[in-house]
From TrEMBL:
Family named by the database record: Belongs to the CRISP family.
Superkingdom, taxonomy of origin: Eukaryota
UniProt KW Disulfide bond keyword: yes
Domain ShKT: 106-139
The keyword NAD appears for this protein: no
Keywords assigned: Disulfide bond
Cellular component aspect of the GO annotation: extracellular region
Native source species: Rousettus aegyptiacus (Egyptian fruit bat)
Name of the protein described by the UniProt record: Cysteine rich secretory protein 2
Pfam family, one: CAP
Amino acid sequence: MSSDPTAWSNAIQNWYDESHNFVYGVGPKSSSAVVGHYTQVVWYSSYRVGCGIAYCPNQDSLKYYYVCQYCPAGNNVSKKNTPYQQGIPCASCPGNCDNGLCTNSCEYEDLLSNCDSLKTTAGCDHDLLKEKCKATCQCENKIY
């Protein structure tokens, strides 16, 4: 949100600057710290982004709203304190790297949080996994 229009680079930088309030593996430095914009901007599996701005003239001060939609969505509750993998850039995606970022994204996403264990127990031929765990079952060696 902004009182005046600003460049997208400024809006995204403001979201990224929340990193000062974030500790990898722990989460926000305090209960009042805002970090959700930062964690979504750096979310490991989000690779498609669409953004827009809305002008709301009836608002008192913050008249411009900057919004982005990420796909796959990030900020998954079970991984919110580890939005990316620490380590050497592209170590987990040799041959699929561009400017220090992995480019082997999965076009599917899991709809359940326990797909890895379900795959081990039931296997990917099970109807539930075919429908709800597409990334786990169809994207081996890809990021999801």
